[in-house]
Amino acid sequence: xxxxxxxxxxxxxxxxxxxxxxxxxxxxxxxxxxxxxxxxxxxxxxxxxxxxxxxxxxxxxxxxxxxxxxxxxxxxxxxxxxxxxxxxxxxxxxxxxxxxxxxxxxxxxxxxxxxxxxxxxxxxxxxxxxxxxxxxxxxxxxxxxxxxxxxxxxxxxxxxxxxxxxxxxxxxxxxxxxxxxxxxxxxxxxxxxxxxxxxxxxxxxxxxxxxxxxxxxxxxxxxxxxxxxxxxxxxxxxxxxxxxxxxxxxxxxxxxxxxxxxxxxxxxxxxxxxxxxxxxxxxxxxxxxxxxxxxxxxxxxxxxxxxxxxxxxxxxxxxxxxxxxxxxxxxxxxxxxxxxxxxxxxxxxxxxxxxxxxxxxxxxxxxxxxxxxxxxxxxxxxxxxxxxxxxxxxxxxxxxxxxxxxxxxxxxxxxxxxxxxxxxxxxxxxxxxxxxxxxxxxxxxxxxxxxxxxxxxxxxxxxxxxxxxxxxxxxxxxxxxxxxxxxxxxxxxxxxxxxxxxxxxxxxxxxxxxxxxxxxxxxxxxxxxxxxxxxxxxxxxxxxxxxxxxxxxxxxxxxxxxxxxxxxxxxxxxxxxxxxxx
Length: 582
Description:
alpha+beta; elongated
């Protein structure tokens, strides 16, 4: 049975291989790169290796050590991606390459430049380092001092550099770029030695250095690099995944980079689109918006899905032309609304970046409404935001959730008719959830901070409502109300990291709080700011003041229960839903 299954698996693989493996001679690869038959997809990063890495690679090639597998992708008749030449190789000038390199760009560029004399460095072999003069033989690779045997020098850009190079190079330094004409160089080298010493045995020396050539020089032409070649039928999403897996330490390839290369031949330059968007809307930079999220919003609007596979397979250049600019305006508009009306005073407090996608996809229709209808649509859009945050609806399966929400939002947000998104219809958040939630629950944590700002939480220091400018100017951030060190000294049974124990506090006030008991630091604040001002500020942060206040009596559990009661009312007001008190 096992043998039968093995034969079936082998047969299936042979009939439809995932890739083919063929060793390629180094000289052949260099020739094909020069001819433009092998090129790079435009999404590949630039060449970044320094000369020392190239020297190490040359050493490995000469020693016949493995240098890793290359990954190529065959190109069909259609030009799916923009391509470019290797650095130092001739321009493609519109020529369509037969293969694109997905993995191995740095190695191939290094070898191409070293073997053709392109690039900023020139590489040399000190041939005497490969010879054992005592026995008149060729050294084994472990006997060679490669630090001396392989050197690199800046290319001669002028007489000064040329003079410096000449001072370093001796007659025994062989240019790696002349590997195909080593025998001619050897004749000149031996003639030079004979001119210095008439007793030199030319025939013996040539025989010795030819043995060195066969052992160390020939591999620079004949070394076979293992190449895995993906067929031209490989799905684009598979190429993207493979590239990401192989290139985790380099510049990652996401759908944006891959689609940039795909649309370029169709007259759509996504990089230019994105640069222009960032120049026109500073909020995109401030909130570190990922351009892939823009593509997701375009795909949602055009095809009703934010799934990666649909972005890669269904999205077209025409979709980009139609929806890109409205989506960019939508994202910027949504961020402005969240800052102005929902308390998102800093990028770090945006609960879910993915929430911007369905909201931005809906935005063009919202802004086209009459002013009265537009105000109602904004209210529904904000209600969706708060409900999604406090149901933590985007913690998992966010891509699927975006599509499901948008399918309902495009009617419900605009007209108020039809079914609302599930987060609005069903709010499965209870009092106990808020009571026990820690700051690790990012959406709830960020949502609470934003809700406090929306409810006009005041700056402890100035008593003024918080704005994005004031948050940055006064270094306002989330800090403990009951200090962590204080609770530790008290051996509190309850965690200091509960989100109900956090609020937005300026740096000066936090220095007053330090590790003190609340009753102690509140007394300092009363003396500094006055009772009424302090009470107003505390109340604006959903903290109970007056008789029985837990914070004034250093009662941590009482403080948490009292604050929970106030916070729940704020959540209910923002979401329009009644929360369970269980």
